[in-house]
From TrEMBL:
Its cofactor is a divalent metal cation. It comes from the Bacteria. Residues 5-153 form the Endoribonuclease YicC-like N-terminal domain. Keywords: Endonuclease, Hydrolase, Nuclease. This is Uncharacterized protein (TIGR00255 family). It comes from Schleiferia thermophila.
């Protein structure tokens, strides 16, 4: 199943009646649907429908929808008969009053000369056409989101693979880590001198207890499980952004615990590299739908 980003863009143009319309949809990441509409006055009755289309198709993100209108008259919207009447009137008036003026220019200044544009109330067929054109633009946004999502998915797979690789590199240091802790404790006891005697069996018991506190096998197992769960969720679930974010947080807890229990320089270096890869995942997962 594809991963979708919340970043997308779509642009589409169409014509209804006497106007050309251009729709632009821009989307960015956001926790919820944050929809902003900028539409011409004639589209106000369609605003609830547009909002429903956007919320249903785009689900989540900061969505900015703008519809621009441009007149495309194939004719001058004036009343020719009225114009001729005005021209005739102003011509007679200028002759009778001996006024030198252009009757056509005078007539063109009359306010009632130009007729109103075609009615801006859309018919049922026109509303259906507008909705289908909006869907086309939304489809472009979804395609863009899918392309961006594929890039995110590739980056997640790379980072997850790197963390798995780093996790496997911890194992060779585990035995040397235990031996180092044992040697350090023995050295500290011996440094106290001959006057300090201790029960060897009791020392071994305390050492076992101490090493059990330092054991991070459970953290390793849980981290590996979270890595696999992240991959499975990404492959099999739609609109999984929130869930992936939660899984990434759990991965961070396990890695932090590994670092706290490590007590070994090389393991600490590996943990730092894990954290670096996880931060890349956390940064990008916020943009997943």
């Amino acid at each position: 199943m594809p991963v979708f980003s919340m970043t997308g863009f779509g642009k589409h143009s169409f014509q209804v009646k006497n106007k050309n319309y251009t729709i632009e949809i821009k989307t960015l990441n956001s926790k919820q649907l944050d929809l902003t509409l900028r539409i011409p006055p004639e589209f106000r009755p369609l605003e609830p429908t547009i909002r429903k289309i956007m919320s249903s198709a785009l689900e989540r993100g900061k969505v900015d929808v703008a519809i621009y209108a441009e007149n495309c008259f194939d004719y001058l919207p004036f009343d020719e008969k009225t114009l001729l009447k005005y021209v005739s009137y102003f011509k007679k008036l200028s002759e009778s009053q001996s006024i030198h003026s252009d009757p056509l220019l005078a007539a063109l200044r009359m306010p009632d000369l130009f007729s109103s544009p075609i009615s801006e109330d859309f018919s049922t067929d026109e509303i259906f056409l507008i909705e289908s054109e909006i869907f086309q633009c939304v489809s472009s946004v979804i395609t863009h989101r899918k392309e961006e999502g594929q890039s995110l998915k590739t980056e997640f797979q790379r980072a997850l693979g790197e963390i798995k690789k780093l996790l496997s590199q911890i194992e060779p240091y585990e035995q040397s880590r235990i031996a180092h802790v044992r040697s350090k404790l023995m050295s500290n006891l011996k440094s106290l001198g001959d006057e300090c005697s201790f029960d060897t069996n009791r020392f071994e018991q305390e050492l076992i207890y101490y090493l059990e506190k330092m054991d991070f096998t459970e953290e390793k197992v849980r981290l590996a499980s979270h890595l696999n769960y992240f991959e499975t969720t990404m492959e099999n679930e739609a609109s999984c952004g929130r869930k992936l974010n939660f899984i990434a947080q759990e991965m961070g807890r396990e890695i932090n615990t590994l670092g706290a229990k490590a007590n070994h320089a090389e393991i600490q270096k590996i943990v730092v590299q894990m954290k670096d890869e996880l931060e890349k995942i956390k940064e990008q997962v916020l943009n997943v739908l």
